[in-house]
Amino acid sequence: MAEKPILIKEMEVGGRSLQLETGRVAGQAGGAVLVRYGDTVVLVTATMSKTVREGIDFFPLTVDYEERLYAVGKIPGGFIKREGRPSEKAILSGRLIDRPIRPLFPKGCRNEVQVVATILSVDQDNAPEIAAMIGASAALHISEIPFQGPIGGVIVGLVDGEYVINPTLAQAEKSLMHLVVAGTRDAVMMVEAGAREVPEDQILGGIAFGHEKVKEIVEFIENFREEALALGLAKEKITPVLAQVDPQVEEAVSGPATEELTAAVRQCIERRLDKQAREAFLDEVKAKLVESFRETFPEQEQSILAVIEAVEKKIVRRFILEEGIRIDGRALDEIRPISVEAGILPRTHGSGLFTRGQTQVLSVVTLGAISDEQILDDLGIEEAKRFMHHYNFPPYSTGETRPMRSPGRREIGHGALAERALEPVIPGEETFPYTIRLVSEVLSSNGSTSMGSVCGSCVALMDAGIPIKAPVAGVAMGLVKEEDKVAILTDIQGIEDHLGDMDFKVAGTARGITALQMDIKIPGINADILEKALAQAREGRLYILNKILEVIPAPRPELSPYAPRIIHTTIDPDKIREVIGPGGKVIKKIIDETGVEIDIEDDGRVYIAAVDPAAAKRALEIIENITKDVVVGEIYTGKVTRVTDFGAFVEVVPGVFGMPGKEGLVHISHLAHHRVNRVEDVVKEGDTIVVKAIGFDNQGRLKLSRKEALPPEPREAAPHHRRSRGRQGRH
């Protein structure tokens, strides 16, 4: 049997080599590509089931992003010592790959497709998620799966005013944005960004810049498939069995459904029905239509309903495109009524309730010590983070029931988007040394709860007294496109997201964008649509920001009385062991005595957290006493610990928890300005006196002077002292 060939192709991306290989590994997968970008190596496979999955009305695509900690030379933490559930980064990376490829499968495809990206080696300068996205596109393209790609993807940075493709770690630290652009040769399919208040025109420029490189990657993958086909390493595409409605059902139902639903939708618009009332009304109309065709088409209720829903989609879209009216009666750029409330929870550290139409989000902020930061066990270089945003979407928010389980991919994704939007305005640890956790509870959902979370969380941050750099708001934009007719919608609700062609979320301050996420359901959009959507989103964002500022114009001047007060100091790193003590004995005693939390960084930064400011101050005094060095020339108030014939020993820095303090000797000649014959004539054990540090002897022992810490004695007192000394001498 002839040895199977191996195909390796290479191109330059961002000044580094991107290499695709097939034919060496994972030969039983539908398509398998080994991607190498720098020293980042990812194996991506794409496989499709041979049969249709019955009983579903959606395309069953799964993207699994499998992190392996050996890729960065780590052993997993915890007791089991193996990878378990995916990290948040892995979930977000899987979503990042899923979103641009999902629209590129045939409508009606019901065969299960699974893409698995296994991260084998990570070079931090070369993002594994981008290598995985390109690998997924290539693996799908060389497989038999009916994928209408390929796509390419890049990260665009903005460093020193210049766009950079796939910035290195050093460049990323200076970059004003992290913009992921994915698309086909002809159009952009997905955009996701985190930015530091970057203006819209620079975002648009970055998208265009990234798309040019995407086109090159697409061409590279197409050439890769052609060569793989020639070598027998790629497969011919199959024609899948697509789920289709019986043409007879469609022909019979479409006419009556169009007439009935057009009238029903117009009533919804004229009466401005809310979500529940509209759904109840339309469901009743649909049910009557289904019933009217049940005898004609027995056992085809699902097909009848599918035709009715397709008709409903066309009607709603037609009203938008032809009459400029949305199903709730709003104009295309009109935002639903907004309500903002701050501080509605008495015992939390900060809270905000944001309501926009029937979307309502309660955001709550909690402040903690630096030790409360989240420990990260993933493939990145960051080991912890001090700002977290979590998002919860309970079933009652949509009037439904379902089991309450751990957060799913949607919750993780929405929480991360809001976190990305708010992170640029969070004060640094050096000015606000707290761990900050935000939780957004979706209380009612009718579109754009992620952007509602951004708005509610901004209110909660300001209510907590956190000195954010600027307030942030977010709005979700939609798109309806039929050939040359285009309508851009501001503040989309659930039905517009479901029936529309785009969900474009934009968050930012008055100065610029902090986060952006675009998902589309059609094969890409052009730059003109993006520009119009961003301009319309800016108007909406500024409108919402003004509504927030009317209620809470600035962060509160004081933290909640229930929030911890954190004070911090810096000690010599060599003194850390003294504060901790043998076996942690000293620091445990400080905590037990004062009731505070103490965090000590390796560089000597010390953070003390306590609800009671007096307790924090007491802990700080103890730590300062432990670490204080006696400085020559400084004045100290000390306690006389013992008296000898030649002087007095004075403790200038008290000891704690049985540990010795710092003491020095005041020689008898330095007790006073006049001559002292007996130490006890001036001081005795237990006295508190003022002394000055005057140096150290040749054995490193501290020398003190009471005389130099006192003002000069009056001249007229000198004879009295001389007479006193004379009498003492005669004795």
From TrEMBL:
Pfam families: KH_1, PNPase, RNase_PH, RNase_PH_C, S1. Belongs to the polyribonucleotide nucleotidyltransferase family. Residues 704-731 are annotated as: Disordered. Residues 633-707 form the S1 motif domain. Keywords: Cytoplasm, Magnesium, Metal-binding, Nucleotidyltransferase, RNA-binding, Transferase. SMART domains: KH, S1. Its cofactor is Mg(2+). Its EC number is 2.7.7.8. Residues 720-731 have a biased composition (Basic residues). This is Polyribonucleotide nucleotidyltransferase. GO terms for molecular function: 3'-5'-RNA exonuclease activity; magnesium ion binding; polyribonucleotide nucleotidyltransferase activity; RNA binding. The gene is pnp. Gene3D superfamilies: GHMP Kinase, N-terminal domain, K Homology domain, type 1, Nucleic acid-binding proteins. Mg(2+) binds at D497, D503. GO terms for biological process: mRNA catabolic process; RNA processing. GO terms for cellular component: cytosol. Involved in mRNA degradation. Catalyzes the phosphorolysis of single-stranded polyribonucleotides processively in the 3'- to 5'-direction.
